[in-house]
Write a structure and sequence with these properties.
Helix content: 40-55%
Shape: elongated
Strand content: 5-15%
Number of helices: 43
Strand order of the largest sheet: 10-11-12-8-13-14
Radius of gyration: 37 Å
Structural class: alpha/beta
Distance between the termini: 77 Å
């Protein structure tokens, strides 16, 4: 019902509801307001005066525009005596906001929903007990949650989708929308509350909290329901092969005939088995819903935590992806299979009672075997769990390295380093396979012992019984045999269950370590002086380095291991670590825990905004133990106050702490002393732009309300309009993952545009103009920074002195301190560090003429920077992941057999499985033969029957087996059959698993090489998450699941076929029903497995967006948090998780849909054989009848499980299909080496380059990006390449390295056409310093020389020439000091110097520099240019530059525009040419004469 009061009344405490607090969630957007009311109690405020509240399951916090102010409301007597609704877990009500709600409070409509009279906590679930329910109103919602009893447990509601899958295949659009109860958001909020309660309770009890306990509390009701169903199922499962079978055998053994009695027991068996099947299916359906909720909730919880982490980085991203891919699989299995733990005690108890009743105390021998089996299987399970933990560690390393390779694939190809990384991957894979082989051996033992245990129990029981002289009758023997077989299923599932639960506990322990990582905390409160935007008083700031190890094996550990792992987000440089725990930064050893507390020189950091919404764990979530966090002091005794509306320039040498200053302002660094306050909302532009896979517009507005006028102004001031003109879809063109389809300048301008559009108070700009050319930089500085942001407070980090001159104030940083501060003129008069820096950068001269000669940036269609053109045709760049339909092709199975060793090896393994199956069958047949021999006097009694007209029962006719003279022989063979069973079992187990692992190893290697040899266009159109899925989830399926399933299914199918054939030999009439049901069986199997496979494919396809979103979010965590977009990205995560959850849930339930129908047919087989036995009484001996009945009963109990495993295997084999697709179906680059055209070893000798009519397009369907470029470059010539951002400069570099093949034309180096030689020869002969410097996880030496081709002396010499020697010498381990993934512990400038060192080591005749000095300070740039001139004096150098002073002294300048050469001449000639683009760009720097240009050097 709708309330009579408005939102302002609520906020002021008016109205008829008694209010204690209000929390606004998603203010101004579609969402909810949660109001607490005083039900059954008076309002109690927290000690700090703030009323307790809870919003969407999150601990008390304020978000949005509330600015930290809490409203306390007076109670209203009207509701003092209101009773709390029965379904209210918390005293709160939810008020829904209209979807069109704006920020204006008048637009908000509040509705109060009175709880219904019949609502209870489980009301929705109890509705499933209704036999039938009306059809749901919303056809888009998943039908399972609103299905009646019969539809629910038979999964009938899935039938229509399965039929569609068979007819036409399935696409993601065919799936339903998940209902809220099963959705990620609701369950994540609930799990969060439980985890908070667990933490609180554990702290009070002074013990470590455990995530698994919180998860158990969340699912225990549903698990208990499953266990109750399991109890009924197990009792029914026992009745069939024990009590009812004994009645049948006693009837067959008796001489009397009673058809009515025969019919009753036959129908009873049918009813019991039908009920058993229904209970079994219902148990799985409930378990599957539970598992979907748990996995969705935990993934959402992890993502919430990610958004609140202080640090991110590539390694963390890979870990989280591994959690979501592999660990969720373990949790899912554990949720379903944990109910089997109830099966063994029930079956065991019933079987002990009944077998003692049948055989007496001797039957306890067999039960003792089962009891002894438990510790054995416990040891095996424990060993498997231990091996699994060890394997996961190696897998994590491999996936992390693979993630690193994919993110740096362009650079790896440029350097031709594929082999080096292939060796590293191969080494990790080899280590991983060693662990897998140990696990496979344990699995082989387990898969042999499990089916053998019931046989051993039978042998021990019967041997003990007969050796003591007791008479064993056929009905007793086969009843006991059948009882032990009934226990077989429970015993068989026990190892699987124990392993699943153990692995799930390991996974939850790993995930808990993530949840305990330190969180980013925002700073509340503004400044007392409102004229100040920012104030730092005596501030000393440190980075916190968290020692965390997700791979810890024991959850009982109180402290994480001591290993340090430093993480960071994109654009954020953080401190790394060396093995002894001393942390290095900028080449200076930093010991955060040294006794004297001395720390030196700060590393450079980009920061995160403290303004992010607290959308996740708030306040009470535990962080890592205190001694697991070390601090590294970076900034010392800072004093800085910034007035509102001022433009503050920040400069300094690389590693001086400029970016760390921004991080400190954002709140990412620990305040060791002093005080920092920011008065306003922050906007951050990171040094390395963060772009995610969405449209260009979405990357700018990032989920905010679209304002067209404001948006157009942003495009104008950020010089983006001309870029949009190139795109057919304009700003709706899709951008590749991590901005892979944009040039560096375009990415940075989008990054800046996002900040401008956000309309914040304080702007933190970390060198945003380094990636754009001079004209664009001038335009952005004038129109954006000095224009649109004129009224804002701007902290502007830059190395460009001509921009610093125009700042209101300049801050000079040196070694983590503010060295100087003042206006440009004041600092120049002091003649300190700033004066020296300006002296090195002459580009700021003659500024007085600049304003008079200002020119607008070119508004021509900007070019065709290569990558940007990816999207020209349709605006759609990222290809949809293929989801093949129909059955898995036979070609895939053939390929799989070949990689596993070929037909001969596979044939031998199959033969071993056949022998094992025959050994199992022989055991039962031998028991029947032994019993049928009796005492060996059967023929004599038959003669007496004829002679004396006597009547004997079946057992009396045979006599006692204990009196048979050959008893020892029957007993010996019985024992030996078991020994044979064990030997063949271990052989077939190790054979299957080892050969599949061998095939897996080969497929992994082939897939790795196939991907790494793919052209760059593949990586531009394929998200890295999709590729990582193959190397993590799919490969895990192949390594672990496929061998287990394959062995189990081959063994099971052969057993079923063999036993059915055996029964047909006993009862010929059984052939008729068996053939009819088998035909039906085969038909349904072909028809229905299509649906299972289709849904598994969709499961795989819809998993990729989840991993991709995680990867993207981790890399952009600073941006997301700064712009308060946590809720946007969290809602997207919910959407991706729910889409995947539907696919996963429907896929799992399709297995049950299929299996249940198979189970019904199996029950028909049991019904048929029972009828044949009782109505053809006397046609065969009681022992043969017992053999047939016990065999069929065992088969029919086993068939549903076998069919489930079979359909699961057929769905999981799609992972193999996906791996094979990437291993053998991807288009490859040109060969690495071509022997026929191999150039001389010393090629190129001179480095002369000739371009002839070079035309380039990135894919056949895309337009040209280079239009007929021709140029001749002499050996040793220094060429500067300039042009507006996106003019095709980097594309030209791509053609020389053949990162993309030419559309037409040719390139000659020293007279050799480079298209005719191998790629490895070409790329290894050219040195490159790329635009985006990339370092890899490993030692500094490995990063410089991965192939160990150079001596240490040569490496040190190169480091000295690149001015890094002193930095590396200060490292604890010198050259062997560790570099974190992506070089996170080095500033961008330092990374560029390491790339320069690589080039110096190669000493090639051709050097390519792609804006290599854009991110370094003027002094370092000067040193680099001097080094290049000295070291490459005889080499041909091609330099792409935005700093024109770096190329002013070059031999010639090539000016590119829109993919064409507009000018190509000496700098002097171009400066003297009227209308020259080069001259215009120089003019933008204030340089108008040749003399001025020469003075730049």
């Amino acid at each position: 019902m709708e309330s009579d009061y408005g939102i302002m009344d609520l906020l002021e405490g008016k109205g008829t509801q008694r209010l204690s607090s209000i929390i606004m969630h998603n203010w101004g957007s579609s969402g909810s307001i949660t109001l607490e009311h005083g039900l059954d109690s008076h309002v109690q405020s927290s000690p700090n005066g703030r009323a307790n509240g809870r919003a969407n399951g999150i601990a008390p916090a304020t978000t949005g525009h509330s600015n930290g102010h809490h409203h306390h409301h007076r109670p209203n007597e009207a509701t003092t005596n209101r009773k709390r609704p029965r379904d209210a877990i918390y005293p709160e009500e939810t008020y829904r906001l209209r979807p069109d709600s704006g920020e204006d409070l008048d637009h908000i409509k509040v509705e109060y929903k009175e709880p219904g009279c019949c609502n209870t906590k489980y009301s929705q679930q109890l509705m499933h007990l209704l036999p039938f329910r009306p059809k749901r109103k919303d056809k888009r919602l998943l039908p399972g949650s609103s299905a009646g009893l019969f539809s629910y447990f038979t999964v009938h509601w899935l039938t229509r989708l399965m039929v569609k899958a068979f007819k036409s295949g399935l696409q993601p659009s065919d799936l339903w929308t998940i209902q809220a109860d099963d959705g990620a958001e609701k369950n994540a909020d609930r799990l969060l509350r439980l985890w908070e309660d667990e933490v609180s309770t554990s702290r009070k009890a002074n013990q470590r909290p455990q995530l698994w306990r919180a998860v158990w509390r969340g699912v225990r009701t549903r698990v208990v329901v499953c266990m109750v169903i399991s109890v009924f199922q197990n009792v029914l499962q026992f009745l069939g092969p024990s009590v009812l079978l004994k009645l049948v055998l006693d009837y067959i053994n008796s001489p009397t005939i009673d058809f009515q009695y025969a019919a009753i027991i036959t129908v009873s068996i049918l009813i019991v088995n039908m009920l058993r099947g229904a209970c079994f299916n219902a148990m799985f359906v409930v378990g599957t819903h539970t598992a979907t909720r748990v996995t969705g909730a935990i993934q959402a919880l992890m993502y919430k935590k990610i958004l609140k982490l202080k640090t991110g980085g590539e390694r963390l991203s890979a870990q989280i992806i591994n959690f979501c891919n592999n660990d969720m699989e373990r949790l899912f299995e554990a949720c379903i299979s944990c109910v089997f733990l109830t099966a063994m005690p029930i079956i065991f108890t019933l079987s002990v009672i009944y077998s003692v009743y049948i055989l007496g105390p001797w039957s306890l021998l067999g039960q003792a075997v089962f009891v002894c089996f438990y510790p054995i299987m416990g040891l095996i399970a424990k060993a498997q769990s231990k091996v699994r933990v060890q394997t996961v560690k190696v897998t994590d390393k491999r996936v992390t390295l693979m993630n690193e390779i994919l993110n740096s694939i362009r650079l790896i190809k440029m350097y031709s380093w594929e082999e080096s990384f292939a060796e590293k991957i191969a080494g990790l894979r080899k280590e991983e396979l060693k662990k897998h082989r140990v696990g496979a051996l344990l699995q082989a033992v387990s898969s042999t012992v499990v089916p053998s245990i019931s046989i051993l129990a039978t042998i021990v029981t019967f041997l003990g019984y007969t050796l003591t002289g007791n008479t064993l009758t056929s009905s007793e023997a086969f009843t006991i045999f059948s009882v032990f077989n009934a226990m077989q299923f429970s015993v068989g599932t026990l190892p699987f269950t124990v392993r699943s639960v153990a692995e799930a506990k390991v996974s939850l322990t790993r995930i808990q370590k993530l949840l305990e990582l330190p969180e980013h905390k925002k700073r509340n409160g503004g400044l007392v002086n409102n004229n100040l935007a920012l104030q730092i008083k005596n501030g000393t700031f440190a980075w916190e380095v968290t020692n965390i190890d997700f791979k810890a094996k024991d959850s009982k550990e109180d402290h994480p291991p001591e290993r340090t792992e430093s993480k960071k987000q994109n654009g954020v440089k953080s401190n790394g670590s060396v093995p002894n725990g001393n942390h290095h930064s900028n080449g200076v050893v930093l010991n955060g825990s040294s006794p004297n507390g001395n720390t030196v020189n700060g590393n450079t950091h980009n920061g995160n905004s403290p303004n992010g919404n607290s959308n996740g764990m708030n306040g009470i979530i535990p962080t890592a133990e205190p001694n697991s966090v070390k601090t590294v002091t970076i900034l010392f005794n800072l004093n800085l106050s910034v007035q509102r509306g001022k433009l503050i320039g920040v400069c300094g040498s690389i590693g001086s702490g400029k970016s760390s200053l921004l991080s400190a302002i954002c709140g990412d660094m620990k305040v060791e002393s002093g005080d920092l306050q920011a008065n306003g909302r922050l906007a951050l532009v990171t040094q390395q732009a963060w772009i995610y896979n969405a449209t260009l517009r979405e990357n700018i507005i990032i989920g905010q309300k679209f304002d067209e006028e404001k948006y157009k102004e942003v495009l104008r001031v950020c010089s983006l309009q001309s870029d949009l003109n190139l795109l057919s879809n304009g700003d709706m063109t899709e951008i590749g993952d991590r901005g892979s389809t944009l040039s560096g300048g375009q990415k940075q301008r989008v990054n800046l545009g996002r900040a401008v559009y956000s309309d914040r108070d304080i702007y933190l700009l970390d060198d945003p103009l380094s990636a754009v050319d001079t004209k664009v930089a001038k335009h952005i500085f004038g129109e954006c920074i000095k224009g649109s942001l004129a009224s804002k407070t701007v902290i502007f980090v830059t190395h460009a002195t001509h921009f610093l001159e125009q700042c209101d104030e300049i801050v000079v940083m040196q070694t983590g301190k503010i060295a100087e501060r003042g206006t440009h003129s004041e600092l120049m008069e002091r003649k300190g560090d700033y004066f020296d820096m300006v002296g090195l950068d002459s580009s700021g001269k003659e500024k007085k003429n600049e304003d008079n000669n200002t020119q607008k940036p070119s508004e021509k269609a900007d070019s065709a920077e290569s990558k940007e053109q990816e999207s020209l045709n349709s605006g759609k760049l990222i290809t949809e992941e293929t989801s093949a339909t129909g059955s898995v092709p036979m070609k895939m199975y053939v390929t799989f057999i070949k990689v596993c060793g070929g037909w001969c090896i596979v044939g031998l393994i199959f033969f071993a499985i056949v022998i094992f199956t025959l050994s199992r069958m022989f055991n039962a047949v031998w028991l029947q033969t032994w019993l049928d021999q009796g005492d060996g006097r059967k023929e004599e009694r038959k003669e007496n029957i004829t002679m004396y007209n006597l009547t004997f029962s079946g057992d009396e006719l045979l006599g006692s087996v204990t009196h048979n003279p050959d008893l020892w022989m029957y007993q010996l063979v019985y024992i030996m059959s078991f020994v044979m069973l064990l030997i063949t079992g271990v052989i077939k187990g190790t054979g299957v698993t080892f050969r599949v692992l061998s095939g897996s190893s080969r497929l992994h290697n082939d897939m790795f090489w196939s991907i790494i040899r793919s052209p760059m266009s593949f990586f531009d159109t394929t998200p890295s998450g999709r590729i990582i899925n193959r190397f993590s989830r799919d490969l895990d399926e192949l390594d672990v699941r496929v061998p287990f399933f394959l062995e189990f299914i081959l063994q099971g199918l052969l057993m079923v076929v063999g036993q059915m054939m055996l029964v047909c030999f006993i009862y010929v009439w059984f052939v008729v029903p068996l053939v009819l049901i088998a035909i039906l069986f085969a038909g349904i199997d072909i028809f229905l497995n299509v649906g299972v496979r289709e849904l598994k494919r969709l499961d795989n396809v819809l998993k990729s967006p989840v991993t991709q979103h995680i990867s993207s979010s981790v890399s952009g965590i600073s941006v997301i948090r700064t712009f308060d977009r946590e809720s946007l990205f969290l809602s997207r995560m919910y959407k991706y998780l729910d889409q995947h959850s539907v696919a996963l849930l429907v896929f799992r339930l399709s297995n049950r849909w299929f299996t249940y129908r198979m189970d019904i047919m199996a029950v028909m087989i049991t019904f048929a054989i029972t009828g044949i036995c009782v109505f053809t009484k006397g046609s065969v001996s009681t022992a043969l009848a017992g053999l047939a009945l016990s065999t069929v009963n065992g088969v029919c109990v086993f068939i549903p499980f076998l069919m489930r495993m079979k359909s699961e295997f057929q769905s999981r084999i799609t992972s193999v299909e996906r791996i094979i697709e990437y291993a053998y179906d991807l288009k490859s680059e040109a060969p690495c080496e071509i022997k026929e055209t191999q150039p001389p070893p010393d090629w190129p000798k001179t480095g002369a380059i000739e371009l002839k009519e070079v035309k380039l397009r990135y894919r056949p369907e895309l337009p040209l990006v280079l239009h007929g470029i021709s140029a001749s470059i002499r050996d040793g010539e220094k060429i500067g390449i300039i042009g507006r951002t996106g003019a095709g400069k980097s594309s030209l570099i791509s053609t020389l390295l053949r990162l993309s093949e030419l559309d037409s034309g040719s390139v000659f180096v020293d007279g050799i056409d480079i298209s005719t030689i191998g790629l490895h020869v070409l790329r290894s002969s050219i040195s490159v310093i790329p635009q985006d410097p990339v370092l890899f996880h490993g030692s500094i030496r490995y990063n410089l020389d991965p192939f160990d081709r150079h001596s240490d002396d040569a490496v040190w010499q190169a480091l000295e020439r690149s001015h890094l020697k002193a930095v590396v010498q200060k490292q604890e381990h010198g050259l062997m000091s560790m570099v974190e993934a992506a070089g996170e512990n080095f500033s961008v400038g330092e990374r560029q110097l390491i790339c320069l060192t690589r080039a110096l080591l190669r000493n090639s005749k051709i050097l390519l520099l792609d804006e290599a000095t854009a991110s370094v300070d003027v002094e370092t740039d000067h040193l680099i240019q001097t080094t290049i001139k000295e070291a490459f004096v005889r080499s041909t150098v091609l330099t792409i530059a935005h700093r024109l002073n770096t190329i002013a002294s070059y031999d010639r300048i090539m000016v590119l525009d829109a993919g064409r050469v507009k000018e190509f001449d000496t700098p002097e000639a171009l400066m003297c040419t009227e209308g020259s683009l080069f001259k215009d760009m120089m003019g933008a720097m204030g340089v108008y004469t040749v003399e001025q240009m020469r003075s730049l050097n």
